[in-house]
Amino acid sequence: MAINPHPSNIYKPLKPLLSVENIRKQYVQQIVLNDLDLTVNEGEFFFLLGPSGCGKTTLLRILSGLLEPDAGRIVLNGTDITHTPAHLRDVNTVFQNYALFPHMNVFDNVAFGLRMKKVSETKVRENVTEALRLVSLPDFSSRMPSQMSGGQMQRVALARAIVNEPSVLLLDEPLGALDVKLRKQMQSELRQLQRKLGTTFICVTHDQDEALTLGDRIAVMNKGRFEQISDAHTLYNQPVSHYVCDFLGECNFLEGSVQQATSTGCRVSVHDGFIEASAPGFKEADQVTVGIRPEKIALNATDETRQNQLQAVVSERIFTGNHYQIECITPAGSHLNVLFMNNGSLELPEQGASVQLSWKNEDTIILPMPDKGTVNAS
Amino acid sequence: MKSLQKYITLGPPAIWLGIFFVAPLLIIFVYSFFERGIYGDIVYTFSLDNYLRAIDPLYAKTLWRSTWISVVSTLICLVLGYPLAWYIARQSAKMKKLLLVLLIVPFWTNFLVRTYAWIFILRTEGLLNNTLLSLGLISSPLEILFTQTAVIIGLVYTYLPFMVLPIYVSIEKLDRALFDACRDLGATSWQSFKSIMLPLTKPGIISGCILVFVPCLGAYITPDLLGGAKSLMVGNLIQVQFLAARDWPFGAALSFIVMAIVLLLLFAYARWGTNNFDKAAEAK
User: pTM higher than 0.90 for the full model?
Assistant: First the structure.
């Protein structure tokens, strides 16, 4: 398990660039952002992940200066920029629907920021050409936005922002309007561009796949709070709340209470018996939810290291191309999904067949009961 | 068979246009080359005298004055209408509806009555002067009624909605994100107005200007009631020719000159008024 989740940071010591302190935003009755704290490091590809209405776009607008927080402080490069208006901030945004100026061609769109800064026209020409080259649109200078596809407009929007060489680049659902194939391609281009520039990217998305794929670190947001801020591996394997566990990927949930707790793990009593986990930090009689990821469960394995075992009956088999999803029911009535790859390594059980489900202690996720979710801003 | 169908479908509108639009214009056009008889009848001999008479300083001055009053009224409508349109476009959906209805409400009242109301406001002992006098802002009443100023006030009042509506539509259509992008890229409010808002609302501005300028140029009730002898407009002149002087050929010629001015402006709009990006979209 010694995979470094963010290779771009192997040689660089982390250096805080942007910090958000106690940011609060409230509309009449509703608290949109509830005293948020966050530090983003230099050169990091950071994600704000959450469903619509969780406050992620509000936070992004506050960072860009288009919205003022009701309380709190934003510090960029050691300077308090909380009350610096948008047009004076060293921050640029790639907007959700690109917001390209429809009456200007690609060149003028990209040159806009530099011209506002009164950069000399020779320098403008040089930098715009370079920016368009970076987004692989070198020959598009004279095109109008209405003559381009969504993917091309996306690249122009990127070029228009990066040409200003901001300290932080904000991206609001940058790939949301693209179709699946194009989105995959743009994902890898975005990653390469970010590595090449070394600029800090802060990206808002509701797409967990995008965040897991691209993010050095991800902040999962829920109702104006950060549920967990961590790298993709930790978020997926060690979620701190039911919400995070459920939002990222799929998971089987069983409710129970801690029967025995030690310094290295615990034993939880559920309807189906006992489940062991190597998760510390719980005490006896705690009401908890046990989470087991479908792909961590093995069918009829003889492996001795899989300490947790449950008998179940196959109720449904679903084929989805690259993998099978097997739905099982335990004698106690719990539903468990099992996922395995379509690689011929396992014989597919018949519907109604009795199977043994097993998984390792360290793959058991123990979560406090929902609605008592702890906030962990590590 | 195909062509027969075409004639059947195109027929009724063509006849309608022919009777109510082309024929009257044609009659006026033909009349403008005839002469007035001694008793106000029409003498059917071809002559260009009517058009030559229109360039006579006596009448040319009226034409020039009409154009000038119309230009000034249009500009005032633009200066007042643009911020108003912007203000309405920024309101909530409910408020927008209310404000737009309020903008249209004056049209529910008779135009003549509304113009008479302005006489009561502007006359020497009228509402405006009494208010200003009692506030001590002026020491003697302003003589506004029966001047060019009164005509301009009347025209601006009447045609302001025609300026506001098309501009409102073009502002309403604008994507708010464009202004966010503009500020994000370092533009001040003035710079984003100049480089984004103004060029993108140009079609609305031009439509509004045409909608205001054209009826201003042909106005005759407003100058008749609010203006004096020195603010006679070409509309009055045409009215006098047709009704009082019974010189239909000359009236027809003046009408055609006014129409020519309007057509020239429309042509200029078609030629230069549309945005580049509209053309690009059309080319696509």
Answer: no
